[in-house]
Structures are given as structure tokens and as C-alpha cells.
Model the fold of this input.
Amino acid sequence: MGLFDKMRGALDAVTGRAAQVTLEMEPPARLGEEFRVRVTAVSSGAEVKSQGVFIDVVASERVTIKGAAIASTGGNPMGASQAGAGLPPVAIPGPAFGGTDKSGRSAAGLPSGQPAATPADVDVTHVSYQHSFQIAPPFVLAPGETRQIEGTVVLPSGVQPSYLGQHAHHEWHIRGRLEAWGNDPDSGFQSLRVIGS
Done:
């Protein structure tokens, strides 16, 4: 192995290109039940010393409400659909939603009853679940070797499944990862549909 081969091997380790990793699974996943995954790792040329194979799972909830949508519903992001459901309208206080503060002034600093500026957009993301499942112990991937690792993952039953609402959605992502020195080679995150138990 020459100097340039050693430099290339070090660069591959730092950039995560020491191995090519793919993930296959049987969606959808059901909360509280096993689902099967398969990770395929292919060495990019040099030996890869892995500390194991992991399945990383991340769930996040995102709420997005456009300012114009808030303004057009009179400060109530639930809008007309809430009134149609037989629920009383909900006034959201405060200048951020077109209401007034304690002094009776609107977001624009105008006395109550005068038009306020259009509220800003609301875009909030919250990670609701994150876990790494080890499905294989440490091993060495020889130069040019291809290895398939199969395992199972169980998502806890006490978390939210996937959903898509008018202003909010809860989505899951999954990836296969070879833990190694430098940047871990991984499959990249893929969407995962998760249904309730």
C-alpha cells in the first residue's frame, strides 16, 4: 500500500466514504412490535474496523402556520373547521396572533379595534423520539467485502405514530449506520411510516 492509498483511506474515513451502506426494511412499522431491517455494507477499498452496526431512528413533530392563515381566521389557527365541529371559537390572546396585550394595544401598537400587522409565520419543530439500536457487534470489513446484517427493531408503544394534519405533522426517519473511526458511513435518513399499536 503506497502513500497515496493510505491518504485516500484516511480521507474516506474522515468523509464517511470508507464503506457504502444501504438500508432495507419492511414498512410500515407498528409501535410496540418488531419490524425487520437489513443493512448492507460494502467496503470502498480499504479495511473498515467497525464498532458495530446501528439503526438510528428519529421522530419529530412540526407545526407550520402561515401568518396570513392566522390573520384570516381572526387569530384562531383552528379556523372555520373548529366552529364546524361544534366547538366554541378560541381566541388566542396576545399581539403575536392579532390580539392585544395587557395595555389594550395590538401587535402594531394600535389601540384595540384597529387593524394589526399580519402576524409572523409559526414554524416549530420538536424531536419527540430518538434512539440508536445496535443490531451487530464490532467487526472488520475486509477490503472490497460486502456484508449483510439483518436485525429487528421495536419502537416503544408510548410515542406518537406518523400523522399529517392541516398545520402539524409527525414524521419518522430511519437510517443504517456503520460505527467506525472518523465519519460513520451510513445509508442516509429515509422516511418511515409508523402506525399505532
Confidence is low (pLDDT under 50) at residues 1-16, 80-101, 105-110.
